[in-house]
Amino acid sequence: MSTGQSAVESAHDVSISTKTGDAGTTALLFNRRVPKSDPRVEACGSVDELNAALGLARATSNDPQSQARLLRIQQELVALMGELATHPDDRAGYRKSGFPRIRARRTARLGRWVQELEAQGTTFKGWAMPGGSLPGAAFDLARTACRRAERRVCALPGGGENPEIVRYLNRLSDLLWLMAREADSQAPLPPTGRHRKPRRGQGAEDKTS
């Protein structure tokens, strides 16, 4: 048997079903076990759902720029989950390990993308009903997942310790709302009604600061 075959067979021996969570606990980083009902686990799970929703939005989008931006955001959410999955007592170990963190420059980039779309006149007059297009509906689904993730992080003691995480998620939800409206504007005729000409500064559903 070749070394390559041995490696493949060894990989096949590792099952995704470890059974270690059968008692209702799960592991954070640094092997710290907590109940699956722990608010930190809930926050991580909400960000994981957001990442999946962004994957759907990326798969349905027809715009290469949007696809590239979404992929970058998904990659950053992995780092964000790493921070959330670290117990406060292990925070020093996380920083010492050199793991990536959500920093102000990442939030600022999202803010620039928001400004770009607003400068193009992307918004909506009145209540924008999700479902004007398949890509737009996917963006709206991701937006609501983002808002839920933001609420879960805010519920953690100290807002997850890194205040930039909440700012990042808040800016991301604004961006996703605009991306949904931009996608809907490309549809011939949304089933929710006629298109309205985009006007800056209008359309405020779920865009609280």
The side-by-side strand order for the widest beta sheet comes to 1-2
- Total domains: 1
What percent of the residues sit in helical stretches (DSSP H or I)?
A: 55-70%
Beta-strand share of residues: under 5%
Highest CATH level, the class: Mainly Alpha
Structural class: mainly alpha
Q: How far is the first residue's CA from the last residue's CA? A: 61 Å
Count of distinct strands: 2
Looking at CATH, the homologous superfamily is Cobalamin adenosyltransferase-like
Spans of 5+ residues with little confidence (pLDDT < 50)?
Answer: 5-11, 193-206
What would your notes on this structure say?
This protein has 209 residues and is an all-alpha fold. The chain has a single domain, classed as Up-down Bundle (Hypothetical Protein Ta1238, Chain: A). Helices cover 57% and strands 3% of the residues. The protein contains seven helices and two strands. A two-stranded antiparallel ribbon has the order 1-2. A hairpin with a 5-residue loop joins strand 1 and strand 2. Helix 5 packs parallel to helix 7. It is globular and about 50 Å long. It starts with a helix and ends in a 24-residue tail after the last helix. About 10% of the residues have low confidence.
